[in-house]
Specification:
By secondary structure, the protein is α/β, with parallel strands linked by helices. The chain is 20% helix and 22% strand. The chain has six helices and 13 strands. The termini are close together. Bound molecules: zinc ion (2 copies).
């Protein structure tokens, strides 16, 4: 299983659109790994996780064609992950009617939002996903787990399995609540992508992780046996408000066995 992080930024990306923070200024000056488009990932070139406002830019930057995506799996309906009107470009009058379209998976808010986004969306095949219930997605098994994040919908982190490999995509979430910890008992992950939105500067909002909280969550998953020495761990969903450059994040997280994600990062499990 090959994982490509197409974006690793939080809500308003890095540098923050309208932000003049120190980190935003640094990112504009230095570019490279410090510029982060909104978070999303692509599994084996066919399973897309989230479809946000930077999808076009990520395709252009990374040489990707969305035509090859057979499945789009959504985590939740926040705007940085969910730009449903962008899906209209898979349909006439932009493309011929025989153009294949991806099958979409998401919670009720996602399915309702897509249905209301544009007329041709009625032609998309959509599957409702629920936390703690496995769903087959082509050759993959998807088991969403409940995130502690946007509480007016079933916000999900995603467990994806194929050919004996088990992968956790853990954004967006704060520290999991009891029901999720209990469900995770007995799972063993080969790799995980975990959010680190707040970096060095935790905010009042409980629905995201800082570096310190991420280390706590990883420590607990290691103690539970979900993560072993061999589990590859990488970050995503970094906010400019976290005030941490890529190099500073590496300095903080690498000693804990955590790699820092960047746009275009690829790994295999
Ligand atoms: Zn987000
Ligand atoms: Zn969110």
């Amino acid at each position: 299983v090959k994982v490509l992080l197409t974006g690793t930024g939080a809500a308003d990306g890095v540098p923050g659109y309208f932000s003049d923070s120190e980190l935003s200024r640094f990112a504009r000056r230095h570019g490279g790994k410090d510029v982060r488009l909104r978070s999303a990932a692509l599994i084996d070139g066919v399973l897309k996780i989230d479809f946000g406002p930077d999808t076009f830019a990520q395709c252009a930057a990374l040489g990707l064609s969305a035509l090859e995506w057979k499945y789009i799996v959504f985590t939740h309906s926040h705007d940085d992950h969910f730009a449903p009107r962008e899906l209209q470009y898979a349909f006439p009058p932009f493309l011929p009617p025989e153009t294949p379209t991806p099958r979409v998976y998401g919670n009720q808010a996602i399915l309702d939002g897509i249905g209301a986004a544009f007329e041709m969306a009625q032609n998309l095949e959509m599957t409702l996903t629920k936390s703690f219930e496995a769903t087959k997605v082509g050759e993959y098994v998807l088991t969403p787990i409940r995130a502690y994040h946007k509480l007016d919908e079933d916000s999900q982190n995603l467990i994806i399995q194929k050919d004996g490999a088990t992968f956790l995509y853990g954004t967006d979430t704060g520290i999991y609540q009891d029901e999720t910890w209990e469900f995770l008992q007995g799972w063993q992950f080969d790799a995980a992508v975990m959010e680190c939105t707040d970096g060095f500067k935790p905010l009042d909002y409980w629905g995201h992780l800082s570096c310190a909280e991420l280390i706590d969550v990883i420590t607990r998953l290691r103690e539970m046996g979900c993560f072993s020495e061999k589990t590859y761990i990488c970050t995503t969903h970094h906010a400019h408000t976290g005030m941490a450059t890529h190099a500073q994040l590496e300095e903080c997280l690498n000693p804990h066995g955590v790699d820092v994600g960047f746009d275009g990062k690829v790994f295999e499990l």
